[in-house]
Design brief:
heterotrimer, A mainly alpha (about 290), B alpha/beta (about 350), C mainly alpha (about 325), A: about 290 residues, mainly alpha, MetI-like fold, 2 domains, 11 helices, globular, B: about 350 residues, alpha/beta, 9-stranded mixed sheet, disordered N terminus
Chain lengths: ~290, ~350, ~325
């Protein structure tokens, strides 16, 4: 009897202990987000001035003179915006084709596997490949080159995210449309796209957020300059690289601005993340449940 | 029918969106000569005779981040004198500057290291425009600080500290074997011209030759900061990280141990620098050895002409006045003459 | 291309395709759209091949000049002396990744279990956005955080602790008095890969049918016992795959790691040592050295090594995960 009771107690003790560990782990994981945000805000906020977001660097900016990182902010928005659009042109057809024609077939599996593999390729490798590609087609470090490489980085993220939501679409809708005599392509275009709009928007914004924060891929491909790009062929600064370079200077005030730039980047990324949540929630109202 | 329009619309939308993305960048363009919106059209700098105030055109520069901040200052000042000159300065590394120069994609490459033979073989012309110098740094709390100031450190000792690792204690450095405090050698963890230069002074060839047991710190400010906090540490740094740019004095807590360049066993008064002015004077006069002082170079494809030539000549003359504030050492009159003569 | 079609059709459609008049125009459009789409759909597979081939081609000068063994196992990296040994960088990559994964995996498994088996739907719906945000934070911001928070933490808390209590254990000796090093890199990496691992594990855990859980609980097992003896054995391959996936993500992380890891080209002996991972090598040197052909090839060769390892890791883990998740879709 006593032994049985002991065992009973022990397993419940283990149960309680494991639950405690799990809660603790959750606190650690969630807490690290808090810690990151706290660190960036505390160190970045003091140097975050109006000039930072409204001006490009003046001569001597990297020695502590006036100016801001408008060039990098706009550069990043152009890069990520262009990259996202370019990726969308390819990823929407891929996601739709996967759903309407390939489904869970052998080829569907190959394509999904290759997308997952592409997702896993580090952006520094995309950067190196992008640079090789640039040499091959005679393109210099420029906004366009950066956009192309970012599109490569974003393509698998966007496509897989779309694929996941499209997959979850109730089969009845598609079948109903087919039964009514629609061709598969029509189904893809009308029913799936419309029904999955919230998911597609989320996927696009997810990819955009990833693109805007990526440093390693644009390091060799987009160049870096204080001037706001005036055409696709001009080099451009980007926010992640602006953070990186400012931290490398020996001037404390410039490093401060580096922290402020990191804060700016974080704010943009968080806005995109919240934005996508909100938009998809809003659009969800207009889909058939 | 409707489907057709839908497809058409979708295609149009996507094209339009992409076109906007391509188009937007060009809208906020400041008034610029139309040529500037084309691809690096800058290559063909107008070869109008460089007489004063008639200078116009576009100069494109690319290369080392070490020179990038300085170049933006030069560009701004030059533009004040010649409002019709447009600059296009981009960073990306010395190698990128070199590749762009060789390919003719830019007018000037900023090279923070020595030009390699395989690069010169491809028709690269270069001139030195400024000097900078790397200094050894220790903490003022160093246990043998007084001896270091009195005796200095010879090149051979630096070699044994930074490259071979034969000297392991501070006692050995100052000839007091009873002092057993271990030396903590620090180096840069990022690829740095300063580390290359310092390694070359210590008898190595490049950054990779510095003791692999040395502790890497990312970035110069962090390196100096780390050394200051570690009484047993030794590291190296450029001029503008060890001297405060406002006061011209040594950064609090830092000590630049004298380099006993003439190896007379003691630090002469002109080997020990407590202010930036002293250090600059020594580097400039050549009293401070080279390396660890080094020239920073501008590269062009073949000898520069026209606007590019005018700009480089300006850098070598009037442009020198902006160097000091930025932590670089201006060229001496002799070096200035030499560089100008090379351009002829 | 043609192979794509037959197996692709999941829902009966031949009948419709044969129908001549009414929908002939529409189905013709359907076919041409399918053709265009199928070409685009092959793009991902094509891309993997092209990327690999391009890197092989660009690193060919060095691959043909040195035996592969000397490159991979070579200990000395002195490009000026034409010595290109990747071993210190490979080991650097390995150590940082291992530390990152070891730190990330246990809490991630616990969190995933908690979210699937215990948590209220409210907790779950709060945890999701937190993980999403964690995944959304850019690498460079992680790097800044590492620089400002983790490096000092390692320096002032973990290193003294280890020096005091663990200094006799080989892997924990503190050889250097800054926080820059493998541990700092590993901690930053652990946080970076945590959202990925948790979300993959969550997906995996939800594939286990509830009946199994109920059966176990009904015979009086506690929840943890159920998890340990029913759920975990079912998903073990998935857990391994998730870990490998996390590792492959960690292998390639560049900017964040490079900012805190110390970057000294030597084979590390302790988690407090500095290391120099391959991605950092490429990012640090490529811009400066791309004008020197052999150096350029060496750095692209580093990218190739990284790519090959990651491709293997990724393909293996993805295959396992796809198989496991299929159960759920089926």
């Amino acid at each position: 009897m006593g032994m049985k009771k002991n065992r009973w107690q022990r397993r419940h003790l283990v149960e309680a202990f494991m639950q405690l560990l799990m809660r603790l782990s959750l606190v650690v994981v969630a807490g690290s987000l808090g810690l990151i945000l706290w660190t960036i805000i505390v160190r970045g906020l003091p140097a975050l001035t109006w000039d930072m977001i409204t001006q490009s660097p003046k001569g001597g900016f990297y020695m502590g003179k006036g100016g801001g990182v408008l060039n990098a902010i706009l550069g990043s928005l152009y890069l990520a915006g262009g990259g996202t659009l370019l990726a969308l042109i390819f990823s929407l057809p891929i996601a739709l084709y996967l759903k309407t024609y390939l489904g869970d077939s052998k080829w569907g599996r190959y394509v999904r596997l290759s997308l997952d593999v592409l997702w896993g390729i580090p952006s520094i490798v995309y950067g190196a490949f992008g640079f090789t590609l640039m040499l091959a087609i005679g393109l210099r470090a420029s906004l366009l080159a950066g956009i192309i490489v970012l599109a490569l980085v974003e393509l698998p993220i966007m496509t897989r995210a779309m694929d996941e939501v499209i997959r979850r679409m109730p089969a009845d809708l598609e079948q109903a449309a087919l039964a009514l005599g629609s061709t598969r392509f029509e189904v893809a275009l009308r029913v799936i796209t419309r029904q999955m709009l919230p998911g597609i928007v989320t996927a696009v914004l997810l990819a955009f957020g990833r693109g805007i924060g990526d440093a390693a891929s644009v390091l060799f491909t987009a160049g870096y300059t204080d001037r706001i790009p005036t055409s696709l062929m001009r080099p451009t600064a980007s926010l992640p690289l602006a953070v990186f370079f400012q931290l490398g200077t020996p001037y404390p005030e410039v490093q401060q601005r580096g922290y402020a730039s990191a804060l700016l980047l974080t704010i943009i990324v968080l806005l995109v993340s919240f934005g996508s949540r909100w938009i998809s929630g809003y659009l969800n109202k207009y889909t058939i449940k | 029918m409707k489907t057709k329009w839908n497809i058409l619309f979708a295609v149009l939308m996507i094209t339009a969106l992409f076109a906007t993305a391509c188009g937007t960048p060009s809208t906020p363009a400041p008034a610029q000569p139309p040529a500037a919106t084309q691809a690096p059209a800058a290559t063909e700098a107008p070869t109008a005779a460089p007489t004063k105030d008639t200078l116009s055109g576009n100069i494109s520069v690319s290369g080392a981040f070490a020179l990038y901040p300085m170049m933006t200052v030069w560009a701004e000042e030059f533009q004040k004198l010649h409002p019709n000159v447009q600059f296009d300065v981009q960073g990306g590394g010395a190698g990128k500057g070199m590749t762009d120069t060789i390919a003719g994609a830019v007018d000037i490459g900023m090279i923070s290291r020595a030009i390699k033979p395989e690069e010169e073989a491809q028709g690269v012309f270069w001139v030195s425009v400024t000097k900078d110098a790397v200094f050894p740094v220790v903490s003022v709390k160093n246990p043998v600080a007084a001896d270091l100031i009195a005796k200095g450190i010879t090149k051979e000792m630096f070699n044994k500290i930074f490259i071979t690792g034969e000297i392991k204690t501070w006692g050995e450095v100052v000839g007091k074997p009873e002092i057993k405090d271990e030396i903590h050698v620090y180096t840069r963890s990022d690829s740095a011209g300063a580390a290359d230069t310092w390694a070359q002074y210590c008898g190595g060839k490049a950054q990779a030759d510095i003791l692999t047991t040395a502790i890497g710190v990312n970035g110069e400010p962090a390196l100096v900061d780390t050394v200051i906090k570690d009484p047993l540490g030794i590291g190296f740094s450029n001029l503008n990280s060890v001297f405060d740019s406002n006061s011209g004095k040594l950064v609090d807590g830092a000590l630049v141990p004298p380099i006993d360049a003439n190896e007379n066993g003691k630090a002469d008064s002109d080997e020990y620098y407590q202010t930036k002015a002293d250090a600059v004077a020594a580097v400039s006069s050549g009293k401070y050895p080279s390396p660890p002082s080094r020239f920073e170079n501008l590269a062009t494809k073949g000898k520069p002409t026209g606007l590019t030539l005018a700009f480089i000549q300006w850098i070598l003359t009037d442009g020198q006045q902006y160097l000091d504030a930025a932590g670089y050492v201006p060229l001496t009159p002799d070096q200035q003459t030499a560089s100008l003569a090379k351009l002829k | 291309m043609n192979e794509l079609n037959p197996s692709a059709i999941t829902i009966e459609s031949e009948g419709r395709d044969d129908r001549p008049s009414v929908a002939s125009q529409r189905s013709r459009r359907d076919r041409s759209a399918r053709r265009v789409f199928s070409v685009i759909t092959l793009l991902p597979i094509f891309l993997i091949v092209v990327i690999t081939l391009a890197l092989v081609a660009r690193s060919w000068p060095i691959l043909s000049a040195y035996p592969l063994k000397d490159l991979i196992l070579g200990n000395i990296w002195k490009p000026d002396d034409k010595l290109f040994g990747f071993w210190p960088f490979i080991m650097g990559t390995f150590w940082v990744t291992i530390v990152g994964v070891l730190l990330a995996v246990p809490p991630c498994i616990l969190v995933a279990i908690y979210l699937t088996e215990y948590a209220h739907s409210l907790t779950r719906s709060t945890a999701k956005p937190i993980l999403d945000l964690l995944a959304a934070i850019p690498p460079v911001v992680y790097g800044v955080w590492g620089l400002l928070a983790i490096v000092p933490f390692v320096d002032q808390v973990l290193a003294p602790f280890s020096e005091r209590w663990l200094n006799n254990i080989p892997l924990f000796t503190v050889n250097q008095p800054t926080g820059f090093g493998i541990l700092a890199g590993g901690i930053v990496l652990a946080v970076m890969i945590a959202p990925l691992i948790v979300s993959v594990l969550y997906e995996i855990f939800t594939t286990v049918p509830n009946d199994l859980r109920h059966a176990s609980l009904a015979v009086g097992a506690t929840r943890w016992q159920t998890i340990r003896s029913v759920v975990l054995p079912q998903v073990m391959p998935g857990i391994v795959a998730a870990v490998v996936l996390g590792a492959s993500r960690a292998l390639g992380e560049t900017i964040a790691v490079l900012m805190v890891v110390g970057n000294v080209a030597k084979v590390p002996t302790s988690i407090f040592d500095a290391a120099y991972p391959l991605p950092a090598l490429i990012a640090n040197n490529y811009g400066d050295m791309m004008s020197i052909p052999l150096y350029d090839a060496a750095l692209l060769c580093a990218a190739l090594v990284l790519l090959v390892v990651i491709l293997i890791f990724n393909i293996l883990s993805t295959l396992v995960l796809q198989r496991m998740l299929e159960r759920k879709w089926a």
